[in-house]
Here is the input.
Amino acid sequence: MKILIVDDEPLARSRLQDLLGDIGNHQVVGEASNGRTAIEQTQHLVPDIVLLDINMPEMSGLEAAIHLSQLEHAPAVIFTTAYSEHALEAFDANAIDYLLKPIRRTRLEQALNKVQPLQRHQLDKTATDQHLSRNHIGAHLRGGIKLIPIKDIYYFHSDSKYVIVHHKNGEVLIDEPLKSLEQEFCDRFTRIHRNSLIANGYIEALEKISDNHFQLRLRGCNALLEVSRRQLPVVRKLISNMTEQPD
Here is the structure.
Protein backbone atom coordinates (compact mmCIF):
# COMPACT_ATOMS: atom_id res chain seq x y z
CA MET A 1 0.00 0.00 0.00
CA LYS A 2 1.04 3.59 -0.66
CA ILE A 3 1.82 5.58 2.49
CA LEU A 4 2.26 9.30 3.15
CA ILE A 5 4.22 10.23 6.30
CA VAL A 6 3.25 13.51 8.01
CA ASP A 7 5.20 14.88 10.97
CA ASP A 8 6.82 18.24 11.69
CA GLU A 9 9.92 16.50 13.11
CA PRO A 10 12.38 15.16 10.47
CA LEU A 11 13.69 12.50 12.88
CA ALA A 12 10.17 11.18 13.46
CA ARG A 13 9.58 10.92 9.71
CA SER A 14 12.93 9.14 9.31
CA ARG A 15 12.06 6.63 12.03
CA LEU A 16 8.76 5.80 10.36
CA GLN A 17 10.58 5.35 7.04
CA ASP A 18 12.94 2.85 8.70
CA LEU A 19 10.12 0.94 10.43
CA LEU A 20 8.13 0.69 7.20
CA GLY A 21 11.25 -0.54 5.42
CA ASP A 22 11.62 -3.30 8.01
CA ILE A 23 7.96 -4.31 7.70
CA GLY A 24 7.99 -4.33 3.90
CA ASN A 25 5.07 -4.61 1.45
CA HIS A 26 4.46 -0.85 1.62
CA GLN A 27 5.63 2.09 -0.48
CA VAL A 28 6.31 5.48 1.07
CA VAL A 29 5.18 7.89 -1.65
CA GLY A 30 5.93 11.14 0.15
CA GLU A 31 6.41 13.19 3.31
CA ALA A 32 4.88 16.38 4.70
CA SER A 33 5.69 18.56 7.71
CA ASN A 34 2.23 20.00 8.44
CA GLY A 35 -1.46 19.30 7.89
CA ARG A 36 -1.96 21.74 5.03
CA THR A 37 0.88 20.22 3.01
CA ALA A 38 -0.46 16.76 3.86
CA ILE A 39 -3.76 17.60 2.15
CA GLU A 40 -1.99 18.95 -0.94
CA GLN A 41 0.25 15.86 -1.10
CA THR A 42 -2.68 13.51 -0.63
CA GLN A 43 -4.58 15.04 -3.54
CA HIS A 44 -1.48 14.72 -5.74
CA LEU A 45 -0.13 11.32 -4.61
CA VAL A 46 -3.41 9.56 -3.61
CA PRO A 47 -1.92 7.40 -0.82
CA ASP A 48 -3.83 4.49 0.70
CA ILE A 49 -2.71 5.39 4.23
CA VAL A 50 -1.59 8.61 5.91
CA LEU A 51 0.55 8.37 9.06
CA LEU A 52 -0.48 11.68 10.63
CA ASP A 53 1.08 13.50 13.56
CA ILE A 54 -1.45 15.36 15.71
CA ASN A 55 0.40 18.34 17.14
CA MET A 56 1.80 20.34 14.20
CA PRO A 57 2.11 24.03 13.29
CA GLU A 58 -0.28 25.77 10.83
CA MET A 59 -2.79 22.90 10.82
CA SER A 60 -3.10 20.07 13.35
CA GLY A 61 -3.37 16.46 12.33
CA LEU A 62 -6.93 16.25 13.59
CA GLU A 63 -8.08 19.17 11.45
CA ALA A 64 -6.18 17.76 8.46
CA ALA A 65 -7.95 14.42 8.93
CA ILE A 66 -11.34 16.13 8.80
CA HIS A 67 -10.45 17.66 5.44
CA LEU A 68 -8.92 14.40 4.18
CA SER A 69 -12.12 12.53 4.96
CA GLN A 70 -13.96 14.73 2.43
CA LEU A 71 -11.74 13.80 -0.50
CA GLU A 72 -13.19 11.67 -3.28
CA HIS A 73 -10.49 9.06 -2.59
CA ALA A 74 -10.15 9.49 1.17
CA PRO A 75 -7.15 7.64 2.64
CA ALA A 76 -7.06 5.62 5.83
CA VAL A 77 -5.48 7.61 8.65
CA ILE A 78 -3.33 6.46 11.54
CA PHE A 79 -2.57 9.18 14.07
CA THR A 80 0.91 9.35 15.59
CA THR A 81 1.28 11.31 18.80
CA ALA A 82 3.29 11.96 21.94
CA TYR A 83 0.10 12.60 23.98
CA SER A 84 -0.58 10.49 27.04
CA GLU A 85 -2.99 7.60 26.63
CA HIS A 86 -5.48 9.31 28.95
CA ALA A 87 -5.67 12.27 26.56
CA LEU A 88 -6.52 9.89 23.70
CA GLU A 89 -9.63 8.32 25.23
CA ALA A 90 -11.78 10.28 22.78
CA PHE A 91 -9.88 8.82 19.83
CA ASP A 92 -10.23 5.31 21.20
CA ALA A 93 -13.97 5.71 21.73
CA ASN A 94 -14.44 6.70 18.11
CA ALA A 95 -12.37 3.83 16.67
CA ILE A 96 -9.69 6.15 15.29
CA ASP A 97 -6.40 4.29 15.41
CA TYR A 98 -3.29 5.95 16.81
CA LEU A 99 0.31 5.15 17.60
CA LEU A 100 1.90 6.49 20.75
CA LYS A 101 5.48 7.74 20.35
CA PRO A 102 8.06 6.24 20.49
CA ILE A 103 6.45 4.05 17.86
CA ARG A 104 7.25 0.33 17.91
CA ARG A 105 7.42 -1.84 14.81
CA THR A 106 4.91 -4.41 16.11
CA ARG A 107 2.33 -1.75 16.97
CA LEU A 108 2.77 -0.04 13.59
CA GLU A 109 2.32 -3.33 11.76
CA GLN A 110 -0.87 -4.06 13.72
CA ALA A 111 -2.28 -0.65 12.84
CA LEU A 112 -1.46 -1.02 9.16
CA ASN A 113 -3.27 -4.35 9.06
CA LYS A 114 -6.54 -3.04 10.47
CA VAL A 115 -7.00 0.57 9.35
CA GLN A 116 -10.05 1.66 7.36
CA PRO A 117 -10.90 5.06 5.87
CA LEU A 118 -12.11 7.45 8.56
CA GLN A 119 -15.73 8.55 8.55
CA ARG A 120 -16.53 12.25 8.82
CA HIS A 121 -19.01 11.71 11.68
CA GLN A 122 -16.28 10.01 13.73
CA LEU A 123 -13.92 12.92 13.19
CA ASP A 124 -16.57 15.53 13.97
CA LYS A 125 -17.31 13.78 17.28
CA THR A 126 -13.62 13.59 18.12
CA ALA A 127 -13.08 17.25 17.20
CA THR A 128 -15.91 18.21 19.56
CA ASP A 129 -14.44 16.13 22.37
CA GLN A 130 -11.05 17.74 21.80
CA HIS A 131 -12.60 21.26 21.64
CA LEU A 132 -11.14 21.74 18.17
CA SER A 133 -12.04 24.73 16.04
CA ARG A 134 -10.68 24.51 12.51
CA ASN A 135 -8.27 27.09 11.16
CA HIS A 136 -9.33 26.42 7.57
CA ILE A 137 -12.55 25.84 5.65
CA GLY A 138 -12.45 23.20 2.92
CA ALA A 139 -14.37 23.83 -0.32
CA HIS A 140 -14.84 20.98 -2.81
CA LEU A 141 -13.57 21.76 -6.29
CA ARG A 142 -13.54 19.10 -9.04
CA GLY A 143 -13.00 16.23 -6.64
CA GLY A 144 -10.35 18.07 -4.61
CA ILE A 145 -10.36 20.55 -1.74
CA LYS A 146 -9.49 24.24 -1.70
CA LEU A 147 -8.46 25.45 1.76
CA ILE A 148 -9.46 28.94 2.92
CA PRO A 149 -7.85 30.21 6.14
CA ILE A 150 -10.47 31.30 8.67
CA LYS A 151 -8.51 34.53 9.25
CA ASP A 152 -9.11 35.48 5.58
CA ILE A 153 -12.90 35.06 5.67
CA TYR A 154 -15.10 38.18 5.80
CA TYR A 155 -18.45 36.44 6.14
CA PHE A 156 -20.57 33.37 5.39
CA HIS A 157 -23.82 33.87 3.49
CA SER A 158 -26.54 31.26 3.19
CA ASP A 159 -28.07 30.94 -0.27
CA SER A 160 -30.63 28.18 -0.69
CA LYS A 161 -28.97 24.88 0.26
CA TYR A 162 -25.40 26.20 -0.02
CA VAL A 163 -23.28 28.60 1.99
CA ILE A 164 -21.08 31.11 0.18
CA VAL A 165 -17.73 31.87 1.82
CA HIS A 166 -16.63 35.43 1.05
CA HIS A 167 -12.89 35.78 1.63
CA LYS A 168 -9.91 37.93 0.68
CA ASN A 169 -9.34 36.13 -2.62
CA GLY A 170 -12.93 35.75 -3.78
CA GLU A 171 -15.75 33.40 -2.87
CA VAL A 172 -16.48 29.66 -2.84
CA LEU A 173 -19.46 27.43 -2.15
CA ILE A 174 -19.51 24.92 0.70
CA ASP A 175 -22.19 22.47 1.79
CA GLU A 176 -21.91 23.08 5.54
CA PRO A 177 -24.98 24.58 7.26
CA LEU A 178 -24.68 28.09 8.66
CA LYS A 179 -25.86 26.89 12.06
CA SER A 180 -22.98 24.44 12.49
CA LEU A 181 -20.48 27.10 11.37
CA GLU A 182 -21.96 29.50 13.92
CA GLN A 183 -21.55 26.93 16.70
CA GLU A 184 -17.99 26.03 15.74
CA PHE A 185 -16.73 29.59 15.28
CA CYS A 186 -18.83 31.38 17.90
CA ASP A 187 -15.75 33.13 19.32
CA ARG A 188 -14.77 34.64 15.95
CA PHE A 189 -18.03 35.08 14.00
CA THR A 190 -21.41 36.60 14.86
CA ARG A 191 -24.83 35.99 13.34
CA ILE A 192 -26.26 39.30 12.07
CA HIS A 193 -29.13 37.87 10.03
CA ARG A 194 -30.71 34.48 9.44
CA ASN A 195 -28.57 34.23 6.29
CA SER A 196 -25.33 35.95 7.38
CA LEU A 197 -22.46 35.17 9.73
CA ILE A 198 -19.74 37.81 9.85
CA ALA A 199 -16.13 37.85 11.11
CA ASN A 200 -15.89 40.02 14.23
CA GLY A 201 -12.40 41.17 13.35
CA TYR A 202 -13.52 42.82 10.10
CA ILE A 203 -16.37 44.94 11.50
CA GLU A 204 -15.87 48.56 10.52
CA ALA A 205 -19.17 50.33 11.23
CA LEU A 206 -22.88 49.88 11.93
CA GLU A 207 -24.92 52.21 9.73
CA LYS A 208 -28.57 53.23 9.98
CA ILE A 209 -30.26 53.32 6.57
CA SER A 210 -33.82 54.01 7.75
CA ASP A 211 -36.03 53.56 10.80
CA ASN A 212 -35.30 50.10 12.24
CA HIS A 213 -33.07 49.20 9.29
CA PHE A 214 -29.33 48.85 9.77
CA GLN A 215 -26.40 47.49 7.82
CA LEU A 216 -22.83 46.52 8.61
CA ARG A 217 -19.79 47.73 6.77
CA LEU A 218 -16.81 45.36 6.83
CA ARG A 219 -13.18 46.43 6.56
CA GLY A 220 -11.58 45.35 3.27
CA CYS A 221 -14.90 44.21 1.83
CA ASN A 222 -17.29 46.15 -0.41
CA ALA A 223 -20.42 44.33 0.75
CA LEU A 224 -22.96 46.11 2.96
CA LEU A 225 -24.75 43.46 5.03
CA GLU A 226 -28.24 43.79 6.47
CA VAL A 227 -28.60 43.42 10.24
CA SER A 228 -31.92 41.93 11.31
CA ARG A 229 -33.97 43.61 14.03
CA ARG A 230 -33.58 40.51 16.18
CA GLN A 231 -29.77 40.52 15.96
CA LEU A 232 -29.32 44.29 16.26
CA PRO A 233 -28.84 44.27 20.07
CA VAL A 234 -26.24 41.51 19.72
CA VAL A 235 -24.31 43.49 17.09
CA ARG A 236 -24.48 46.70 19.11
CA LYS A 237 -23.16 44.94 22.20
CA LEU A 238 -20.35 43.33 20.20
CA ILE A 239 -19.25 46.68 18.76
CA SER A 240 -19.47 48.31 22.20
CA ASN A 241 -17.27 45.59 23.71
CA MET A 242 -14.75 45.92 20.90
CA THR A 243 -14.63 49.72 21.35
CA GLU A 244 -14.04 49.37 25.09
CA GLN A 245 -11.13 46.96 24.67
CA PRO A 246 -7.69 48.58 25.13
CA ASP A 247 -5.40 48.79 22.12
Q: What stands out?
A: The domain at 2-129 is CATH 3.40.50.2300 (Rossmann fold). The radius of gyration is 21 Å.
